[in-house]
Amino acid sequence: MAPTVAPTTQPIQAFGHVDYTSTGMCYQSYRCTSNLASPGSENWKQDHYDWLTRANQKQDATVTFTLSAAYFVTSFDIWNQNEYSGGRSRDVKGITILYSNDGLAFQPATTAELANSQGAKPNPKNTVRLPAALNSAKYWQIKLTSFWTSDPHSGLMRVVINGRKDLAHVDYTATGMCSESSRCTSNLASPGSENYKQDHYDWLTPANQKQDATVTFTLSAQFFVTSFEIWNQNEYPGGRRDVKGITILYSNDGLTFQPATTAELANSQGAKPNPKNTVQLPPALPSAKYWQIKLTSFWTSDAYSGLMRVVINGRVDHQA
């Protein structure tokens, strides 16, 4: 399978180059994995040396990249070994990229086929995009699985890892039935609006319509949503209008919603500051553009209920 070409459009969220240290078995100390991180080192020896495997130890040879923290890695830019042209090429053909958070047990992320550089200067870049649904990880590996020739050695010249450490707050518009226009779903997105009326108003359901009331969040694109941060209604002491049970749902057409998870929100007791509830979503969920919170149970029998603020965290699906 040929490496996927990176998109020419600007992504919704910016991803940067990720610094790393690397380890692996090498032919010689000056032709080892540390060379892979050197900027501008795409061409063999014209810039500097490569990572080269030991003789007859190229099959399933690995280089392990240790990042400073767990990152959501989106792609690898890889320059092949590039030393010789023709039948003596030491270029890699097939690779597997793997990931781990303990540095011991690695899971496969994707496979790719690198182009034979044919010793060309400049050395062509291979961009291998990773599945967007992968979890973040601190340790990444490239395993060499096949080769363009039978030379006893093989290796790579340079590797750039692209990704993002932090999850972003996701902008949204929110819609749903409200008790009145000043206490409606648009209030949920206001920054710093955790405390009822002290900061601003809430989203409050119409009287006696709180059971299974929903608020729908429309994102700017499909996102892998990882968590919701939710502040309860917070109006009265005792949490008279606070929500207890919720279901979070998702959809890509805005019509048919699938359940993602359920959670119980804490009774705020009307406290200031209002305590935050963080609801983690299952990591295997697909990306989605539409998300919903459904109110399923309540701390009291008051005719009304609602929420003060909702923050959605996630990362955009660049392949959607």
Poorly predicted sequence stretches spanning 5 or more consecutive residues: 1-14
What is the number of domains?
2
CA-to-CA gap between the ends? 20 Å
Oligomer: single chain
Q: What CATH architecture of the largest domain would you give? A: Sandwich
Structural class: mainly beta
Shape: elongated
Main sheet record = 9 strands, antiparallel
CATH topology of the largest domain: Jelly Rolls
Would you report the number of β strands? 18
**Percent of sequence in beta strands:** 35-45%
Q: Give the overall pLDDT as a whole number.
A: 89
- Which radius of gyration do the C-alpha atoms yield? 26 Å
- Count of alpha and pi helical runs: 0
Order of helices and strands: EEEEEEEEEEEEEEEEEE
User: Helicity, in percent?
Assistant: under 10%
Query: CATH top level of the largest domain?
Result: Mainly Beta
Q: Give the full name of the CATH homologous superfamily of the largest domain.
A: Galactose-binding domain-like
Structure, explained:
With 320 residues, the protein is an all-beta fold. The chain has no helices and 18 strands. Residues 1-14 have low confidence and may be disordered. The chain is elongated. It folds into 2 domains: 16-164, Jelly Rolls (Sandwich), CATH 2.60.120.260; 168-316, Sandwich (Jelly Rolls). Strands 1, 2, 3, 4, 5, 6, 7, 8 and 9 form a 9-stranded antiparallel beta sheet that branches. It has strands at residues 16-17, 20-23, 51-52, 62-80, 92-100, 107-113, 125-129, 137-147, 155-164, 168-169, 172-175, 203-204, 214-232, 245-251, 258-264, 276-280, 288-295, 306-316.
